[in-house]
Amino acid sequence: MAALSRDDAEDHAAAPEVRVEALERLLVERGLIDPRRIDGIVERYATDVGPLAGARVVARAWVDEAFRDRLLADGTAAVQELGLDGVQMERLVVKANSDEVHHVVCCTLCSCYPWAMLGLPPAWYKSFEYRSRVVREPRRVLRELGLELPDEIEVRVWDSTAELRYLVLPQRPTAAAGLAEEELVGWVTRDAMIGVERDLREPAEGGGAR
After folding, report:
1. Axis crossing angle, helix 51-63 with helix 65-73, rounded to the nearest 10
2. Distances (CA, A) of 177 to 52, 65, 131, 171, 184
3. Which of 107, 127, 132, 160 is catalytic?
4. pLDDT tens, 27-43?
5. Is 5 assigned a catalytic role?
6. Where does the chain show beta strands of DSSP type E?
C-alpha cells in the first residue's frame, strides 16, 4: 500500500469535497438552503474558530492540575468552563499522553472532529487513506506523517463518532517549564491535539497555536 503523506491526503480528500459542493448547489437551486447562511458558518469555523481554542484548554491543563483532572474526567463540562461548546462538541473525551502511552484520533466513518476546539479538520484527516489505515497500522501511518515513536511507547487509537469526539492532551515540553499559561498557548499545535505530533517546540516569535 502506498505511503501516506499530508500532500497525498489532500488529493484523496478532494473527491468528497466535490460531491459536497454539488449537493450544496442542488439544495440552493431548489431553495432548500440559504447560501449566505452556509457561507457564514464556513467563514466562522475557518477564521473565528481554530486550534487556538484547543490550545488554550491544553495550556490551562498544563498549569492547573485540578482543571486537568476535571478535563480528563469530563471533557465536555471542563471546556465549558472556558466558554467552549457548539457543533460536534456534545460529548468530548480527552486522552492524556504520557511517557508510556501516545494517543491518536481518527474517524473511520467520515470526519467527526471537535470543530469548536480545533476549527475545520485538515484534509488528510478526512482522507480515506488516513481513516482506514491508522486503526490497523498506526505506527506506520504516524511515521509517514513525520512522527517516529520508540517501540516502548504504546499507541492507542481512538475512533470519533457522531456522538463522541476525542482530543489528545499533549505532554508539556520540558523546555516550556516555568512559562505562564498565556505563553504556553503558542507551543500547542493542532496536530498534537489530534495525535500525529508529539514533541512540541518553541513557537516562532509572535506565533499563536499552529
Report:
1. 120
2. 20, 14, 35, 11, 9
3. 107
4. 778 787 777 776 665 65
5. no
6. 92-96, 101-106, 154-159, 165-169
Q: Has 106 been annotated as catalytic?
A: no
| Phi–psi pair at 144, nearest 5 degrees | -65, -25
pLDDT in tens, 56-113: 999 999 999 999 999 999 999 999 999 887 655 679 999 999 999 999 999 999 889 9
Active site includes 111? Answer: yes
| Cα(183)–Cα(92) distance, integer angstroms | 25
Domains of the chain with bracketed CATH: 7-194 (3.90.330.10)
Alpha-carbon 121 to chain mean position: 7
The whole model's pTM is what? 0.79
pLDDT in tens, 115-174: 888 988 888 999 999 999 999 999 999 999 999 999 999 999 999 998 899 999 999 999
